[in-house]
Prior knowledge:
The structure holds two protein chains of two kinds.
Chain A: H1 18-22, H2 24-33, H3 37-46, H4 48-62, H5 64-67, H6 71-76, H7 81-102, H8 104-112, H9 116-120, H10 126-142, H11 146-160, H12 162-197, H13 200-225, H14 235-246, H15 257-278
Helix pairs in contact in A: 2-10, 3-7, 4-11, 7-12, 7-13, 8-12, 8-13, 10-12, 11-12, 12-13, 12-14, 12-15, 14-15
Chain B: E1 3-14, E2 17-29, E3 35-39, H1 46-53, E4 61-66, E5 69-70, H2 75-80, E6 82-85, H3 97-107, H4 112-125, H5 141-153, E7 159-163, H6 171-186, E8 191-195, H7 199-205, E9 208-213, E10 216-222, H8 223-230, E11 233-239, H9 245-251, E12 255-260, E13 263-267, H10 274-283, E14 287-293, H11 298-305, H12 313-319, H13 323-329
Amino acid sequence: MAIYKRGYERYQGPLTSHWTRVLVLPRFAWRRLFQQRLVLILMIASLIWPLLCGLFIYLSNRLDLLQSLPGDIKNMLAINGKFFLIFMNVQSVFSVLLAALAGPGLIAPDLANNALPLYFSRPLTRVDYVAARMAALVGLLSLVTWLPGVLLFWMQSGMAGWGWLTHNWYLGTGVFFGFAAWILVVSLVALASSAYVKWRIVAGGLVLGFFFILTGVAEMLNAILRVNWGSLLNPTRSMYIIWSAMLGQELPPGPGVWECVSVLAVLIVLLGMILERKLRAVEVIS
Amino acid sequence: MTAAIEIDNLRLKLGRREILKGISCRLGVSGSGKAIGLLGPNGAGKSTLIQTLLGFHRPHAGSARIFGFDCHRQAREVRSHVGYMPESDSFIANLTAVSFLCLMGELSGLPAETALEKAHEVLFHVGLGEARYRTLGTYSLGMKQMAKLAQAIVHGPDLVILDEPTNGLDPSARLRMLKLVKEMKDEHGMSVVLCSHLLRDVEEVCDEVVIMKDGLIVHQSNLEEERRSNRRFVELEVSGDDSALAAHLSALGAEMVSEGGGRWRIVLPLEFEIARLWQVTAQLNLGVRKLTHRRDSLEEIFLKAVGHLQATPHDRLHDVPHADAVAAEEVSPHGHL
């Protein structure tokens, strides 16, 4: 029967599981995100560098010319921790740009249109909502961070052989966990920004500003006070130090790894508190 | 029989202010398709009560249960049985109505294909069939209200909570909304909580009414019973010597009071047929100028409950000594109350 001829009937069938319901939000979010041309262009652009890295891995393992280069040059072109650290640095920039573009569209419209009571009057808690919104960003950022990173690692392992894999296994785990931590920070910054300002464009600017302005402030502090702990204010720098440790690279001058971990943990807690405070079904003015 | 809503000494503080001050009541019957009207002046705590029922606020004392589930501790179970239409604009502006309803249906637990089917079905049901592929941001106020109603019923809940559903609707849209609400309870067996400041809406649709003031329930009544009792409450105006009328009607089991000038208020016994009244007046040679069923309007009940009216006409009848006594003492056949 045509739908317009049918009357309304209450649904009496079985309901889906809790997690199926939670995953509805990221599914709808991805559908909307990939309808945006800018997001698609940026996604494609952010995959160019991994492709180039893949090409480099292929060439370094296949071309006899590279194999026959003198020791110093050969070391420079080796696939090692430094190679992956550079890869991660470049991809982290793209991940911030993607988060700034896609993140604010996840929460800000819900707040601007007062849609939260509709979500929270359904079997969905605030934690579920944040997890679902975060899953949308994590999925998107994974496509340009750890997924290509781990693929490159396995590509190199496949081409260089078992010996290389057993000596460099920590590079694979470093890429995966390093990017996982980065995605957590970037996603939380994007979600908190969009929860805080409600306006999508301003929230996007705030995400970029958070990373770029803090970098500038940290450098200014270091220069004016002639210290190096100012870098702790720069989450990008803190993450770089953690990545360096994970990939077995020499640590740059500045704060230690555990100091950086602590600062990022505090940042994550603060961003979580912003989300806890802002994402309520109804705003209570006491 | 499980009550649809059970509230026991519910207290809620927001900041330092106590909004709900120990509310207790049992409303509706699970699966019976009754509508409950929630009335009260601005700031009485109606919306806060609804939000507490939905688990948005944590009560600091007492409890609230919907279909036996605790609204705070079992919020997920409660919300699976409830559809909520908020008072203010709540939607996702750049979604089409169909996508919006699909999303809401799936979040409530409908499988994806069913949600799509139900979205179309409900949009036709509320009269938005032709506009279902338009984005919600382009809808008029009346259409947005209908879209909000549609999202509240897309998953077929057992209880639908409607917060000011007729706000901003023109008369025809208002009638349509009230018709849909009536259908929800009468044809689909849903329990409905209708929070409104429009007494006519509540009177038209609801079976029970709760009136709140300053965070307390000041009146709760069953409108069905009120309507039944109103059918027994008549106002009579006669010409001629009506001094014997009280005695005659009392003998037939009626209670009455004279308002003077031949005007009487009479409560008829249940089995009393109105034809008997005509017979008595004819027997006493009285001319009947007026005979009407007098009812306490919801407005009078409301005004009395919130303290703007001393008593309803019905109350005034019961406040005076029994009509038999009035007749026996012969105070005055036309004595004023």
